[in-house]
Amino acid sequence: MNDISENSNYVEIRKRHGPDVVNFLVTKKVTLKEDIFGSYSLAENFSKDEWNFKLPSVNTKKDKVRKKNKIKLYAPKKHDEDQEDNLHLYADFRRSIDILSEKPESGQASASSTSTGEVSHPRSASEFALHLKTKKIITQNLNGMKCHEHKAATLFLKDDRGFLNILNKKSPEYKSCHLHLSSIMLMFAKKSRQFRYNIFLDRFSQDRNLLEGQLSQKQVYEFFSKILYHIVPNQLFGNKTNNAKIKQTLRRYLESGSEDFTLEKLLLSMDVMSLKSNKMYLLAQVLNWFFDKFIWHIIYSYLYCEKPQAANYEKIIIHRWIKRGTIHQHMLNKTRENVYEPIPNDEAKTIDGSFVPKLRFYAKKSGLRPVLVKRTDESQKKESKIFQNILKRLYLSTNPPQKPHITQRIWDDICNFRKVNGDKPLYFVCCDIKDAYGSIIQNKLLEVAGKLLDDNLPEVLTSKPIALLRPTRETLTDFVEYECLGFDYFPPLLPSGSLYCPINPPNKYTTTVSREEIKQFIKDEVLNKMVRLRSKYFKLKQGIGQGLPLSAVLSEIYYHDMEVQELQKFKNLGSLYRYVDDFLYLTDNREAAEKFWKMTQTGIQGYNCNFQIEKSLSNLDSADKEEFSFLGFYYNIKTMEVRPDYSGVPVRYSLKMNKETGYKLLNLFIRRISKFMGLLKLYKFVLDPRINSKKTIIKTIRAAAKMSAERCFLLLVNMFDIKKLDRKFFFKIFLSIKKTSVKPLLKTCNDSLKVEGCHFSFKFTELQFIICAKVFRLNKLLFSNVDYNSRHIIKAALSDSASRHLNPPKNTLHARINEDLVDEIFKFKETNISNWIIENKVETLCCMYKNLSIESKQDFLWALALKYAEENYQKLLTRENTLKKALTPRYHWLFVLMGRLEGGVKFLVDLRTDVLELLSESTDAEKSAIMQQLNLTLHDLLLLWFSVGFLHLERITWQSSCDMLQKISDYEAIHPIKNWIDLKRRVGPYRRCYIFTHPSMPREPLVVLHTALCDVIPETVKGIEEAEKRIVEKTTALSIYENVNHIKAAVFYSIATTQKGLKGIELGNYLIKEVAKEVTREFPMIDQLSSLSPIPKFRLWLLDNIKQDPTSIFTEDELINIKNILSTDDIFLALKKLFNNSLWMNDKYIVSELKEPLMRACAWYLYREKRRNYALNAVANFHLRNGAVMWRINWMADPSPRGSEHSCGLMVNYRYFLSETEDNSRNYIEGNKIKASEGVIALVEKAEKLRNK
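Now predict its structure.
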């Protein structure tokens, strides 16, 4: 042990006991000795009277209250060194962001409430007095049942008795319905026996995004939907309405996780108006049996679910859905490999299985991971702790833990190498042991452990009492006394900074442990270990059980011996690091690195140690590899930078808490998020500007802030009922996040940056922006469910960083704006490119500017003023002002004044309408030029005032005002609305109608876009209605919600501008862009966006081409056939007369003969006919400028008279691929290139061959 001098700073003691204890030690000049574990020993029999005084800085009364109300967090008892909370390591919380942000299906409940929509209950609890027995059943928490109760029900349901004994035979209601219910339940049991559950599960294809054997959420829902459809009799719950509600509630039951789940809301929402009280009681019994017995029987029998240890306050939490057949196959393979030896049934019956470890399985990329969970009685637990403590201390005393931490030591070694060797190559090899626990040779382990015990322990260990000072803040007399076995051979294993002193009361402690007892205990744990999987028992023949307390110590002893015996030669030529089963080897000797790499491929046979080849990494094959990842950090061997790796860190949590404590939920939330700082790995060397560059530090802090925000968000939505939060409570949550997440992160960052040579720091608003923007995200789950005042609080909190830009570009914290971005924007100044493409880059520029420091903002403004101004600006300034005044017409000032009046903007729009009409009628060129100048002045003003930032997106529904609905009807020009019934259908289910409005023109739609929600992109107008029928047929008959799972396409079938005075101002393209975002946010399953567009003026173009040269449209055979059908030689006059109405579409011979030539001609017209190098057709030009793809030309798509008049019944699908729209638009506007599908191109090539003949 090392003596601690008076000048020592007592860092660890101050962390554990506080400054008052340190001051006392310094004042009293107490001599301390530091042991190998970082604890400090006082002199033997240290006088405890010296500690007898109160700490002046402690409020004892408050501290007692805190202790009294202390909440119990059910976290694991053992923690890693670097992580204070390990819940995320083994618990994958099923209700993630992607699931919660989706709109629930019909009747589906959200994570913390019943449903996003209102549910109509035919009866509430206040309207119907429930029977006491009924209420007891439906208010029972089904998730609070103990596992053995479910298991008993599962065994009972294997024959008809489990189905027939559904009701209480002693109840007076039993006789009245016994015969009827028995016939239904016998049918139920028969169907259940005949249904092939495993065969159906095996039909599911493996989701590539999931691990082997796992089922997706959709597959689980489909599995239970098929069960309800094929097995459950319709008569069991009365009618189809009730069956639909059962299906909806079943989905909520599967999603309930750790929440309370009762049947009260289901029973009160079912159709039970004609039932009396006694029948309500019977129905409650049936419902309880169905969910608590039958559904759980399916889960237990055919799906694998992880269950916490049995306790009254804990609930069954289904973490992952895994096909049980996958687990059976895994056990079968391991049995063949002699890993497990099955115990015969006769022998198994004599085993007390209550204390045999149970096998649990967790899915991972390399397969299933078996983990043992053991329950022990108090005597076994005490014995196990004693032996485990001895082995830990023995191992650590022979292999003392090194300081600093391994991550710091790796960086130190890289730096030392660079100082000595300069640019000399440094080679690294990273590898990971395959099945580290399961591959251990049992006899070899016993040999290694026995040698360790023989070399370092006496025959008998005796205990010695010690007194430990508790880390309390109440008094300094709070000692705890306990016995320490083997104190004379190695110190007690205590937390770093602990204070203890040996005491010697006579004959108080007499515990002794012999060396042979320890050996026998290890032998029993290794060679004679039995495990249990449900009702079957196995003997572990190879390896040791992962998850048991002793296994971690034994594996460390085993692999340390392997390291000493087999890998010492590599240590002599480089640096070897091992953390559990991860290895890292650093060396400048290429030959040594190659040998180590070869060893990772072949393994170490003497210890049955094989490495995962797919995870092994080295820079031997390429000198360009300068970075490697090890233990959650990236190390750069060239720049010596190091940063945390957050890519594999899950942000999901399993939340288990004791609701019986009555402790405030907000305080639990605060306690949980306060632990996040320990998980972010923001060590000092990570944030040291002398180690990492400013760019790397900024990137690290941004990633840490986002990680912390994601954790806050998940806890928030899973712990609170968002819909029930009032303004006051919501504000408390916000302040809690601000205090426990933002400020600690800020303090950690700036404390690390306080070094010489660092010239930047972080502001509170910058980190607050990242965390709050992520936690209080603008989605329907959270932001739209709080009241207006709470929403205002969130926006106010984000106002410093512009709440509109919730996701700023990377590396924008105090980073200078890249001048290349500004140059790129100015390149578009003289081009004709679409405004919204430029605005994407301008939006990025604005977001970056808002996150600049004051100094950087000033630098940017000077650069903007100097670099992008005219040369000799001072000389030209006077001339420009003079020229500007001379060129600006005087009525410009008048128009500005008009625009300031109430209703003035609307007046100017109407004024421009009159100007455009006047221009269209004028024949005087000189006067038209003067009027055109006035038109351009109005255009420029309106273009400025009607920027997309001033527009408001609004959805029109049947609940909208009558005057707005009337305007929607009047403005529809493409597909005229017939009557109010037609209008109701167009704004009802599976349709969306959106408009743009302007604050200066209230209740006046500027652009109207009609959208249909379909399963596929329709080819015809009638196909929209057919798609709706198909989706409705797949939906529950009485469902009041849209079937989200079958809506996969959004079709824009009508867009109309309503204000002629806004001609030439892009509004429709912005509306399509916003609606595309809106529908994909509302319906996540949508992956197809398309228009169903008319082809105006195609008929006129077609007749004009036929008049000039019919052979450019028709082949010779087609001309002959058409002339024969129409009985004429003048094909132009015949077709002109034919196309005047839509009656020709009823003649199948004419339709068949015209299809091919008109399709060719239409493709040529859309693709090749140009005006100023752009598409001649206005609708095609509109969609192509927006970045759409000319995807499909549809024959007989609009057989209406209007469709025949304009486009001979043809229509076009312009497909929007959001990831390609920007490139497509740029290529069309700058390069005049039209993006079209292969089908359209094929038609164009046919037309081209015909024209070139």
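The CA atoms of residues 352 and 605 lie 37 Å apart.
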